[in-house]
Every structure is written in structure tokens, then in C-alpha cells.
From TrEMBL:
Name under which the protein is recorded: Fungal lipase-like domain-containing protein
Keywords: Membrane, Transmembrane, Transmembrane helix
Residues covered by region (Disordered): 1-23, 615-638, 869-897
Annotated transmembrane regions: 117-137, 157-177, 189-210, 222-241, 293-310, 338-356, 385-406, 418-438, 450-468, 474-493, 513-536, 584-607, 653-672, 692-711
Compositional bias annotation for Low complexity: 881-897
Ranges of biased composition (kind: Pro residues): 618-629
The keyword Cell inner membrane belongs to this UniProt entry's keyword annotation: no
Amino acid sequence: MRAIRGRRGGPACRTHDDERAGETLGPDVLELRVHGVANTPPAQMLDLLPGEVEQVDGDDLGSFWAPTPAAAAAARPPGDCRSAPAGVRREAYSWGAMARFSTVPGLGRVSGTIAGLVRALWVLIIPFGLVNVAYWARDADEPAGRRSSAAGGLVRLFGLTLTLLWVASVATVLLGVVGTQCYGPREQVPLPGGGTVDYVLTCSALPGWADAAARWGVGGRTAALAAVVAVAVLVLAAVGSTGRLRYERRMSAAKARGLADAAARGTDVWPALARPGFWTHARRSAAQWCQHLAAAYALLAGLLAWHFLYRDVPACARATGFADRGCLDPGTWGSGKGGWALLVGASTVLLLLAAWRVARLRVDPLPHGAPGVLPDAHATRGPDVALLVGSLVVLVCALVAVARSGDRPLGAVGPEPFLGLVALPRILVAVMVLLAVVAVGVRARVAARLWAPLVVTTLAAALVAVVWADAAVAARAVAGAALAALVVLVAVASRTRDGRRREGWGGRGPAVLLCLAGGTAMVLSAAAVLGAVAWLEAPGAAENVRTPAAVTDVLDEASAADPLRDAVTVHVPQAAELATPAGYLQFAVASVAVLLLLGAAVLVLLARMAATRRRTPPVLPGDPPPPAPRDAQEAAVQRGRRHAAVAHRAEPVVGLLAALSFGALVAALVLPDPRQTFGGPAGEVWRIGVQWADRAVVTVLGLVVVSVVLAGSKRSLARPWGLLWDLMCFLPRAAHPFAPPCYAERVVPELRARVDAWLGDYGTPLPGGPAQRERRRVVLSAHSLGGAVAVAALLARWDGTTGPHDHRVALLTYGTQLRSYFGRFFPELLGPVALGTRPIRGPRLWAVDPWDRAVPAAPDRLGTTLVESLTGPADGAAGDRTTTSTTASTTASTTTSTRWRSLWRRTDFIGFPVDGYRGGVIDTPATEVDPEAYLLTVASHSGYPRTPQYAEELGALVATLRAARPG
């Protein structure tokens, strides 16, 4: 089969002879182009040179561009794609900087060390962003009540667990390694020339500015390190909140008035993106911010109090059999420990209260409530502020008590120097595993009154099995039974639910995304901890490794080189061997196994593709395979289709990665302690695996740092891996307050305001008065992810004077993922129930054509859809496409015209139809060969506006808009 060309032939960018009515009033149609994930520059979007475009509105982050007067008036040959149709004003909207760049308050776009540190911290909040995506993958239209699955609360609890994991990781490095192992007991050592010196450091790699802490008392130094842990949580929160005012509180005046109109008028059941309050989450994000900080500080205070409560009781250093050894008996603590026990109890209560507040918060509009009731209006921050203040008070009390604890050694007796940091990561991983299991069934609406008791029973029984050895057998049986019942419950519900095949990952999207978030967080956590330990074990400055006999000369040399430095001599007889909590090493081993399995799966997939390299997917799924190519062009096109088909398997590959991540989390709980040794060949394999796993995660950390530096080398605060931020930050920040801000909370109102201004809505003055307002029209032209942005802007306009139906707007998309990805991953937001497009089953991993499955029947719709809002009575305009629509209440058919067109091509690795490969009225296949390239070039994801199909569909939409009249 030959490459697809224009249906009516002609030049690649041929324009139409549009009517020229009203030329004295200027252009009547605005073609507003919106770029996608590639962050296409404005000049490239308009097919012009950089000097031929000018900014007409906006700022450095979001801006509107148009051809200069000279470029617009330039004579061009007929059919030149740089020329807009007669009476059409062409503009480009650039929003990519909002997703890819950041600022530091008070510093602007800095460079150097601060910029590198900020970019590194942006990597750490990637798991938080994935949790936020998982939140919107749940059933957003699920009603509240006794039968609710409480999916939103489940996802937010998972996000809180990630915050606590970050606290545990930082505390492990600063308290469990540096505080207890790098600062040893002070020892007066005589020097050969007379005098003495304190040998207090055992980690020679610590920088010189850390020497001063060696002269402090143990209590004061520990309190200072704990305060640094608290500040680290604040730093992470600040990175995620960068640009918050710019994103979440900027709203066009038209949008604000529209919300007031909708609240006063009442509405039909609208898609989630059209509901008032969807894009405004400032108050609710602030409430979550207080909740997460309160939980983090309560956990830190509890860790400090627990360590000092049991530090001097060697029998209580191990968790196994904790209660059987009398460790819960107040008499075991000894005198003067009641204050520490009180701090432990207060911290536990505050942590549980914070978790309860996180689970109970509602952050998105109610689907079945009063349309004018905005959740933000009911978001009270008083209890959460009080909770944060209470946690701060407890933490300050703990810090003061630690600072006044004296100069006794900080480390506990036993292999684990800081108590509590060994069990905490494993507890958090266990919570993540259980919540991920429940997430498999939340789209099946497994009631929270069923799964919550099973989760609590499993955790409580497992805790009893560890703490009380005498009851371990019975407790393990209870935990196993509760876990088995939970797995059966969610698996059966998910498996038997209708419509799951039309949704991403078989309706298990929340679980997939949570597993990815948990796996990524554990990889980053293990890499940070093990990397820090490896650095601290390395030899440091020369004066830190000299023998005592030469220490006088070394101190004199150091003082002469740096008069402001009072060097602390470090006695290191041999390389330091620092103890690390076993949980991080266990996950490192599991991570290496996951990477090996994933690599093997990719190799198998590539081998299979190589074996079937002569089998090319057809243009339309279900058609016979194309015949052997007859020339170089057909061979190139078929090769492009095969390469695109590999990328079309992204969904099952990501699902496989999520399953492996879940396996790694489980393995971190069941693997033996890496410090144990075993005999035989299996023991040798285990020893080598542990050794190489440690090195592997440290290498991963190094690669991450390098990639972050390279990613931001051109712009000082460019976020690493910009494509990830484009996809991850489209939806509002609703599940984790430290997640990256949502750029669409500014993009959608800003794009909508531009459309409103052109149409003269909400009293916007227009030259020409009411006559000009009556003739104005808009075509939103959106590429790739820009299609989702344009759809959200159109839905946001429903709160205006016209409601859902406005005959003045049309939509032209190309290379978009609305149906195959966004509609399947977020069904209630961008799926068939909201857009009115036909559903599709997911791609198959091993098929030659991943999309060769049949399309199921359309689901029931709750109310008005986007397709219906862009459909009106056909008026015989040139280029009209008609379709027959029926409703459940009547069998009579009416001829209608749809003002939505979309282009796709089989060689596009990330672009798909929005309604169907065949039989629809919206989609048109575009040419698969770049018509303007000098050499033979197979078109993929870009270049749609240069195809003849783009000019044809744009002309058809313009003609339809001009012929339409109010109903």
C-alpha cells in the first residue's frame, strides 16, 4: 500500500478560496495553534522564521505570538502553508516554559551550585507527581457514602507514606550514619611535641566545615542534625511549591465571572473538566501542605524520643520479641525516661491524626452535588494548622530534650546504632504494598468498609507477630488470612467489572501508577542512602589519615594554608565500615533483579520484532497486511510504521515495569538480611548479588546527577527530562502537596481568556461593535498534548453565557493521544463519557499490530459531551461532514455537522485517532511522507500543518463556522 497522500491531490499546503465577506472589519476567524509535548517554538508552529513572528500577549512563561505585519503581507505562492486562509488570523500559544522551568523565590533563575541542587531536588519529587497522576486515574465520578471505595483517600495516604519515606531516608543519613557513626567519643591523644588533641571524627570524607560540630556536646550536635532533617523536609516542600502563586491563583476575569454565573444558574451533569472549581486548588493544596508537614515532624519527634527511650536497654534494640523481653514495661526504661515515653505517645497520636485528615480531605468538585458548590469554599485549614502547630511543639520539645541529654555516646548498643530507623523503612514499604494491592480494585468500587478493616488487620497482626514472639504463629496466620482475603476481594472485583477492557491497564491504572511511584521513590531513597554511605567511607583530606607522629606538622600546614580553619584531627586506623539499615540494601538487591528482568523482557520484544520485521501493520487495523514494497518510498513508510508500532506498546511495557516494581517492594520485605551469609553456591551468588547491588544503586545515583546537570545545562533552572513534566503536571495537584505544580491551572484559564477576548464575551470591547462580535469565530488547532489542553479550555468555557453549546468555536487536533492514552487512563476526565468519542481496547504487547482489537460499544453517558457541544444542525456548508445521531429516548435520526476534525498517521509513534481508525466523522489519515522535505523523509509526530489534509480540514471548519447561526 502506498503512503497516504491528499485525498484530492494538489500542493502540500493548498489553501481554500474562502469567502471575503466583511474584509473592512478585519479577520473574522482566529486560528489559535497550541503546541504539544515537544515545546515547539512559536515561529516553528507558524511555519515562519524567528524574525517573522512577534509576541502579542503574555510573559516569559505563557505567550501568544502572531506573524509580523511584514510577514503577514508578504507575497507567497499559492498553496504556501505559511499563509493563512483569507479572513483568518493565525496565532500560536506557547506554554511549555510553565512545565519545564522554575524559579527560586528571591533569586529568580539562578545558575551554578544552587541551580544544580534545585534540579536534583526536582528529581526527588517525581514520585509525588506520579501519585498525583494516580489520583486522577481513579473513578472521579464515584459517589460518596457507605459504598464508596475512598479511592482518593487511599491515594493520598500513599502519598503521605512517600513523604514519611523521605523523612526516614534523610534521618538515616544524618542521624543513623553521621550522628552515631561519624562522630565518635572524644579521646584525648597526646602529641609528640606536647599537648593533646581530640580525636572525634571517624568519617574522613566529611568536609572541613563539619569539623566544628566535633567540638560540640553529643546532645547539641544530635539536636542540630535533627533540625537539619526538619529543614530538609521544608526544602522539599518548597521545591514542589515553586511557582504556586503563578500557577494556582492566576485566573482570567472571564473565568471568575463564569464561575459566579454557573453557581447562580445551576447546570446539567457536565464532564469533570467543565465543573466549576476543577482548576482551582489553592486552599486545598495548602491544607495538605500542613497535614504532610505535621506528619513528618511528628515522625521525626517520635524517632528521637524512641531512640533515647531505649538507647540504654540493649535487650530492646531488636524488634523481634520486643514485648516478650519486657520492653513495654515502664520499669524497663529506668528512671527519668517518662518524658521520652510521653513524647513517643504524643508523636504517635499526631501522626495518626495527620493520616486521618489526609484520608478524609475532598479536593475535587462533587460529581453529583450542587453545581454551584465549590469544594474550595468548604476547605477549612484551621484544624490542619492546629495539627501542624502541635507537631512543631512536640518536635521542639524533643529537640530541647535531646540538646540537654548530655555528652554520652549517641549510638545504641548493638548492630543498629540508631533505634527505629531499621524498622521504619520496612513498615512504610509494607503500607505501600497493601495500598497498592487495594488500588487494583478501586475502579471496581471495592467499598472502603471492606478493604480498610482487612488492611488494618494485616498490619496489626504482622506487628503483633514481630513484637510478641509467643503469639507469632497465630498472628502470622491472621495476617496471612486477612491479606489473602484482601487479594481475592480486589482481584475478583477488578476481573468481573464491566468496561475494564476499555480502560488503561485493564482498569488497574491507579495501582500501576502507585507501584511506579513507590518503586521510583525506593530507588531514589536507596541510591541516596547507599551513595551517602559510600562517600562517607571514602578517604578524605590528607591530615585526616596521617599517623599521630606527624600530626603536629600537618596541623601547622593546615593552619598556614587556611588561617580561619581550626582543623580537627581524625584518627582513621582503617577504612570506616558504616552500618546501613538492611531495608535499603534489600531493595537495592530487588531493584537490580527488576532491571535484569525488564532488560530481558525488552530484549525478547526486540527479538520478536526483528523476527517479524517483514510484517508491517496496515493503515487501518483489521485490514490485510500490506504487500511487499515496490519502491524505496513504500519501503521507508512500512519501516516507519513498524518503528511506530514498537512505541505503541508503551502501555503494556509500563504495566510490566509497574508489576516488577511491585515485586521489588515485596522482595524488600521478604528477602533475608544482606549481612547474613549462606553456604554453598547459592550463598556465593547471594554475596555477589548484594555486593553488586550496592554498587549498582550508587551508579544509578551518579547517572541521575549527571543527567540532571546535562538536562539543565542550557537553562539554569530547567527541570530534568522535560517530556516527563509535560505529561505529569497537566492535571491539578490534588494528592500530594509537594508534587510539581500543575501548569494547566494557568494554561487553561489563559487560553480560554484569549478565546473569550476574540469572541467579545463578558463585555470585551471589539472594534466594530456588535456586528464584529456576531461574525467572530475561533478554531483551536492543537498538536499532541496540546489537544488535551485545548479540550480542557473548551470545557472550561461551558460556565460562560452560552453553556456547552457555542456555534462560534471549532477544534482541529493532530497527532494526539486523547483516545488511546488520556481517554483510557483518565476515563471520567477525557474518556468517552466526557468527550463522546468511541472507546477502544488497549494495545497488545506481542501482536504485529498492537491496535488490531475490535472496538466495543459506547458506554452510557451521564450528560452532555464535548462532541455533542461541537455538533449542530448541518447547514450545507462546503466541507460539512454529517452524521446520524440517536438517543435512548427516540429512534428518529437527525443530520448533524461536527466541528471537530483530527489528523493521524500510522507512522506517528505517539499520535492516534480521537474517534476511530474507520467509520468516524472526525478523523482523517494524513500523508506519511513529508511533502516539503528535500530528501525522502517519513513523517512521524510533527509536520501535520504542512500536509494537504490540514489545509482541507481547516478550510472545512472555517466554512462551517461562517455558515453556522445561533440555534
